[in-house]
From TrEMBL:
Domain called AMP-dependent synthetase/ligase: residue spans: 10-368
Protein name: 4-chlorobenzoate--CoA ligase
Keywords: Ligase
Domain AMP-binding enzyme C-terminal: residue ranges: 418-492
PROSITE patterns: AMP_BINDING (PS00455)
SUPFAM superfamilies noted in UniProt: Acetyl-CoA synthetase-like
Entry GO MF terms: ligase activity
Species in which this protein is naturally found: Neopusillimonas maritima
Taxonomic lineage of the native organism: Bacteria, Pseudomonadati, Pseudomonadota, Betaproteobacteria, Burkholderiales
InterPro entries cross-referenced by the UniProt entry: AMP-bd_C (IPR025110), AMP-bd_C_sf (IPR045851), AMP-binding_CS (IPR020845), AMP-dep_synth/lig_dom (IPR000873), ANL_N_sf (IPR042099), ATP-dep_AMP-bd_enzyme (IPR050237)
Amino acid sequence: MFDLGRSFLASVERSPNETAIVDGPVRLSYAAWFERIRSVAGAMYAAGLRRGDHVVTVLQNRWEMATLHWACQFLGVIVTPLNWRAKPDEIDYCLQDCGAKLLIFQNVSSDAVAGSELAARVNRLSVGEIAPGVANFEEWLVAAPAPSLLNADANDWSLMLYTSGTTGKPKGVPRRHRHERAAALAHVAQNLYARNERTLGIMPLYHTMGVRSLLAMALIDGCFVCVPKFDPAVVLAAIEAERISNLYLVPTLYHDMLAHPDCVHTDLSSVRKLGFAGAPMNEGLVQKLVATFLPELFVNHYGSSEVYTFTIDQNAARKPGSAGKAGINQRVRVVRLNSKDPSAVAKPHEEGEIIVDLAGDESFEGYWNRPDADAKALIDGWYFSGDTGYIDGEGDLFVTGRTDDMIISGGENISPVEIESLLSLHPAVDEVAVVGLPDPRWGQQVTAFIKRVSPVTEEALDAHCRASGLANFKRPRTYIFVKEVPRSPVGKLLRRKLVASEYELE
């Protein structure tokens, strides 16, 4: 199998004059971008970086970040991207955990880097505004190429992402070139991408979705249009100006884009393929996207940093809530809750834990320096995801939440996702999150947090649930109207904040 450096070089040789990357005024062809990538790889080599070393980045989605990613692939260095909003202690932890040889940052992350104790002990590079006493990326663009252009093979480490760390410290997820290339090829195939597609680089390059978009476009001689920070108006303008052909976003970003007043005036006709991942999409948003874009293809992709693809559904509107069937590189099962036996397969429609086969081409091999996490998640050749779901009579997977999100009320297991999808269909509901709050009688009480777009009462929402046929024990007993539903930077619903009363009432 090709390593990723060879993969990029193949696109340079096929399509040297095609536009490869756009970032504001920066527009580079494959040939021009390759020359800059070669220079950056040469500068890394001159700085002492060698095959297998870690480079930590704390950058937004900008052309320099994409350039660094590819330079690492050529040099055989492991790119280790962190959230550009990372705090000093998070930077300290990750620098120590991976033994980084270089830290690269920009103005938005400079204060956190300055507050990091370990940052001062490693080589640093600034991107954009010049930081006093720190080398600048501009200097690297004129460096001589590395002595050897192709320094990695398919079995070398390519990338290490850190999980979000909602409980405890984040876990490093190392992935080899062959893992990354297989995932990118599957992404191209399952999204039916054609040569010269154009996508928006909105999903951050510290997130598996952002990395997949970057790699997939390079494999098909496509164009990656950088969006450093999500802003609905900027995104809508970029779609029209750059004639974007496909989008791959989390549901929250789609929601915010459709809700922006510019949406109705924007020419979205170039977008023919939609994809989403990262969280389930409620039925209300599915319907709005279909009506707005009239997509030729609407893909629900379900996976993780550890194993890129679990399942895929190429017609997300066909059966809202369905994550489809196993991807082309994967096998998927649902096993009984609290069972750690891969053979304890749940019955159709029985809710359990979702597990995937670690022999798949896209699967990682274990966490970085975390045998405790390996022991919990990697069992008899299967990855126990911690997600809950069930498989229906047609063999389609439905993801219902996390094992930790399950509401147990009066001895009944209740999944919040089903209730959220139902409530999202009410015209007055903008966003909804359902959690279980402590209750002295029931153990947990089903509680719905609602962000409204128009006035609505608890009684009206309860009537909506009754009319839908929702089982009585699943109906929310309390409705709380909030200004915002808390989410992570990549759109994941943060139910724990609602449980901890970290919200603002409307």
